[in-house]
Amino acid sequence: MRDVIEGRVWVLGADVDTDQIISGKYLTIIDPQELKKHVFEIALPEFAAQARPGDIIVADVNFGSGSSREHAPQAMKAIGVGAVLADSFARIMFRNAINLGLPAIEAPGVRALFEKGDTAKIEMRAGRITNERTGRSISFPPLPHHLLELLEEGGLVETVRKRLVAEGKAAPA
Length: 173
Prior knowledge:
Layout: E1 4-11, H1 18-21, H2 32-35, H3 47-50, E2 56-59, H4 71-79, E3 83-86, H5 91-99, E4 104-106, E5 119-123, E6 128-131, E7 137-139, H6 145-153, H7 156-166
Parallel strand pairs: 1-2, 2-3, 3-4
Antiparallel strand pairs: 1-5, 5-6, 6-7
């Protein structure tokens, strides 16, 4: 994870649940490369075909509500989403995203700052999000140090894997 994340913005409304991110009919798929073909199939049908690595999702309130499936942040990460910004997150989505190494930033008012296609600049440690087109910005409470460390390592699973390799309890990937 970089301290400054920049990317093209895709916008979503309020109450985007996990089924809108990755439909329940794909829950038998465990390969992230296959999952990414179906990300936002309901909420943004054009997303999977047009997304570029580093794109940023900007949503209104209650992003990621619904089931606690990890498939949703896993699919976003697999397609290359650089970060998810939302006015608010369902708690389980927030934790699943961080645990999988996908930056999730809660910043009330962020959705009103962007239109589709804008460029967002996120300064993780400074706690600032800027719309590069308009120059408007808002502040957010930076993530705690331990969560920033998890993101820098690629998420919780990757952190544990690296620790086990270092202790000789697992083979390198």
